[in-house]
Amino acid sequence: MNTLSKWHSSLTAHVRDEEGDVPGWVLITLMTAGLVVMIWALAGPALGSIFEQAIARVSGM
Q: What is the mean pLDDT of the chain?
C-alpha cells in the first residue's frame, strides 16, 4: 500500500467517525439562544417598565 492510499483510507475513516456528530458550535448556538429567550422572558417586563418611565420623564408626561 503506497502513501497516498494510506492517507486516503485514514481520511475516509476519520470522516466516517464524524458523520453522526453534531458540531459543537451548533450546540453552543442553540444553548445561547435558549438563554437569551429565558432572560428576555424574565427581564422583559422590567425593562419595558424602565423604558416607559424614562420616556415619560423625557417627554414630561
A: 82
